[in-house]
From TrEMBL:
Alphabetical list of Pfam families matching this protein: An_peroxidase
Keyword Repeat in annotation: no
GO cellular component annotations of the record: cytoplasm
Organism encoding this protein: Mycena sanguinolenta
GO MF term list: heme binding; metal ion binding; oxidoreductase activity, acting on single donors with incorporation of molecular oxygen, incorporation of two atoms of oxygen; peroxidase activity; prostaglandin-endoperoxide synthase activity
Biological process, per Gene Ontology: defense response; fatty acid metabolic process; response to oxidative stress
Protein name listed in UniProt: Peroxidase
Recorded superkingdom: Eukaryota
Length: 423
């Protein structure tokens, strides 16, 4: 298997190697809007701030068979679904601003709609997606505090006389002061590593009807729902049925031995070789100098494993680790150790080790962006825009854009939890 090395940034020899991306890694919804002006321009209609959609209301399809959107590499049906929903949501926000600000030109509508849509996406990720993946009451409180703060409404008008750290807890990070911690506009390579979650992918997706909750005859394995195949899922079925399917079915488990088999023999269009993505995930961590499991734990002041039995209480997982690494616990890779690790905190879909980097970045994504801190104001968003964000969750987003699912999505308190299927 041959693949390219990651291109390093050239900062000079005195600094550790860093790696950039062809797509921005910030919370700016650039995956929908594009990361450069050339791509960005091709996605906009030029009318009333809206993004281009096809006659059927979905994203257009390019000559490569992929959705025309801000970033469509490594494409699959789940990404197509989300990009379509957020493009639809942007256009609805444009309608709202057009109605209330009839003199605004296309650029004004677009800029405000992008701010509102992006912030709503960030809010949903913070207070809904993360607590669904880490389903623990304390974690839910912590993520709510990140966005809203812990202060009751009747105390929010007292002057801010606190240190920044206390103010972030009391009032929330959003609308506060930025904090770069000495490193502007960067995420750690370890954050990328703990987000290696290919095991969430299902081996098969079978479409359910949103009318009666029953499975249809349309079923797709990974090779059929990735890349060009995403269109056969999205456009080969009612869009409402596809969204309903993703809403009602569980993802794969982030555990050892559950890496999708087809991802280990992936035929990516344009790649000269079949790719084993499990091997690539491990290789990238090693190539970029990410610490292995035990060293990672030491650097985060966690107790390192003395033997393989300290990593997991599952005998099968311990045996699998020894089959690859022998008894050399120091050689266990971060991804492998993280998937094997048990027990886990109550409700956690991934390991406590991975959580250390994940939770730090969850706050950093907000506190290092002026549009979530000092400029999260009516001057930039409008009061109408701030109210729209405040009054919306992902259930509302789905209900607005796929109205046939309005009842289904409200069978749960969080749209990222499996929806109730009629018996």
């Amino acid at each position: 298997m041959t693949l390219r090395r990651t291109v390093k940034e050239t900062w000079g020899t005195s600094r550790p190697a860093t790696y950039t991306n062809i797509n921005t890694h910030w919370w700016d919804l650039s995956q929908v809007y594009g990361s450069d002006e050339a791509v960005h321009t091709t996605l906009r209609s030029g009318v009333d701030g809206k993004m281009i959609v096809a006659a059927d209301g979905l994203l257009p399809v390019g000559p490569d068979g992929l959705d025309v959107t801000g970033f469509n590499d490594n494409w699959w049906a789940g990404l197509s679904l989300m990009h379509n929903i957020w493009t639809k949501e942007h256009n609805l926000v444009c309608d709202m601003f057009k109605k209330s600000n009839p003199t605004w030109i296309d650029q004004e509508i677009f800029d405000h709609a992008r701010l509102v849509t992006t912030a709503l996406n960030a809010k949903i990720h913070t207070v809904e997606w993360t607590p669904a993946l880490l389903a623990d009451d304390i974690l839910q409180t912590a993520m709510d505090a990140n966005w809203y703060g812990i202060a009751p409404a009747w105390l929010r008008n007292i002057p801010d006389i606190f240190s920044q750290q206390i103010a972030e807890v009391w009032y929330g990070i959003v609308g506060g002061q930025p904090d770069f911690s000495g490193v502007a506009f960067a995420h750690s390579e370890e954050f990328v590593s703990v987000y290696r979650m290919h095991s969430l992918l299902r081996d098969n997706i079978t479409i359910r009807s949103h009318v009666d909750g029953q499975y249809t005859a349309n079923s797709y394995n990974i090779s059929e729902y990735t890349f060009r195949g995403a269109q056969s899922v999205i456009r080969g079925n009612k869009f409402s049925d596809v969204v309903y399917t993703f809403g009602t079915d569980n993802p794969g488990a982030l555990i050892l031995g559950n890496y999708p088999a087809e991802m280990m023999s992936l035929n990516k269009p344009g790649a000269p070789y079949i790719l084993d993505m499990a091997a690539v995930d491990v290789l990238r961590d090693r190539e970029r100098g990410v610490p292995r499991y035990n060293k990672f734990r030491r650097l985060f002041s966690l107790i390192p494993a003395q033997t393989m039995d300290d990593i997991s209480d599952d005998p099968a997982s311990v045996a699998a680790l020894r089959a690859i690494y022998g008894d050399d616990v120091e050689s266990v890779d971060l991804l492998t150790g993280g998937l094997a690790e048990s027990p886990r905190a109550t409700g956690f879909a991934f390991s406590n080790t991975q959580f250390q980097a994940f939770i730090l970045a969850a706050s950093r994504r907000l506190m290092t962006d002026r549009f979530f801190t000092t400029d999260y104001t009516a001057e930039f968003y409008t009061q109408e825009g701030l109210d729209y964000i405040s009054n919306s969750d992902f259930r509302a987003v789905i209900g607005r854009n796929v109205p046939e699912l309005n009842a289904s999505v409200y069978t749960v308190d969080n749209a990222f939890k499996p929806w109730v299927v009629p018996s």
